[in-house]
Structure formats: C-alpha cells, structure tokens
Specification:
Blueprint (H helix, E strand, L loop, with lengths): L1 H20 L3 E2 L9 H9 L3 E2 L2 E4 L1 E2 L5 E4 L4 E7 L12 E3 L2 E8 L2 E7 L4 E7 L5 H14 L3
Parallel strand pairs: 1-4
Antiparallel strand pairs: 2-3, 3-5, 5-6, 6-10, 7-8, 8-9, 9-10
C-alpha cells in the first residue's frame, strides 16, 4: 500500500512538474476582459481542451486562456470582428452563435450575441474544431451567454 502511494505521489509530481515547465504564452488581453462575465468564464473553462492542457498566459488575465502548443487561444471581452455584418453567416453550437474567420494558419471563432464577445483562435493542426467549440459553447451558455 505504501509503495502504491509513493508511486502515485511520484507520478503526480512528475505530471505537475511537466505542466509547470511549459512556458507562458504572450496574449494581449481584450479591453473587456475584467468584466464579471469574463472572470466567471475564466473560472469554469476546462483544464483540457482539444486534447491539450491549459497553459499560463502573460500577462495573467481572468478572461485570457491558452491550451497546448501550438496554442488554442481564448480572449473574452473582445470587440466585434471588423469583417462581421448583420448578413454574416454564423455557426450555432449549444445555443451560442459563432462567427468564423479564416486565418493564415487556422480559424478564429467569435461568439456573437453574448454578454461579452469571446474569441477563440484554433491553429490548423487541430482536427477537432467542432469538439473544441462544443466544450467552449457549454461554458459560455452556462453563464447565460
């Protein structure tokens, strides 16, 4: 029993050490990141997203999160995308409407019609974009989006 506990403790230390060693990612917080909605969203976002783990962002902000490498980056409290119009096509996932924008190396989705707009940039190397949006939509809709 003691051996099993020691092995478990050792495994947890190795895991925690590996997580702590990942470098911080520079992410510019959005202007609205300090709102109650963004703070609450930051508190309920998953530790794992798209098969990758949460990593630190610099500067630290309640509405700014990143997962993996290359990083999936979320920013809460953003302004509407410049290319968005009332006629833009939206993708609805779990009652959250997302506006997609193609990027040079991936796609960015911005929630529309939510208390604060939430932007998530997903690098092209992630094949599970629908799963990522489903997880994030759950968190946004939980707060009454």
């Amino acid at each position: 029993m003691v051996k099993n506990l020691a092995a478990l403790a050792c495994s947890l230390c190795i895991f925690a050490g590996a997580s702590a060693c990942s470098s911080s990612l520079d992410v510019e917080p959005a202007d609205g990141t300090a709102t109650q909605f963004c703070t609450e969203l930051g508190a309920i976002l998953p530790v794992s997203l798209g098969g990758t783990l949460l990593r630190d962002t610099r500067p630290s902000s309640p509405g700014t999160k990143a997962w993996g490498d290359p990083a999936i980056v979320l920013r809460c409290g953003v302004a509407p995308p410049k290319s968005y119009s009332a006629a833009s096509q939206l993708l609805t996932v779990n009652d959250v409407n997302w506006y997609p924008e193609e990027l040079e190396a991936g796609v960015r989705f911005t929630s529309m019609e939510t208390n604060e707009l939430v932007e998530v940039s997903i690098p092209a190397s992630y094949q599970n974009t629908a799963d990522i949006l489903t997880e994030l939509s759950w968190a946004v809709s939980t707060l009454g989006g």
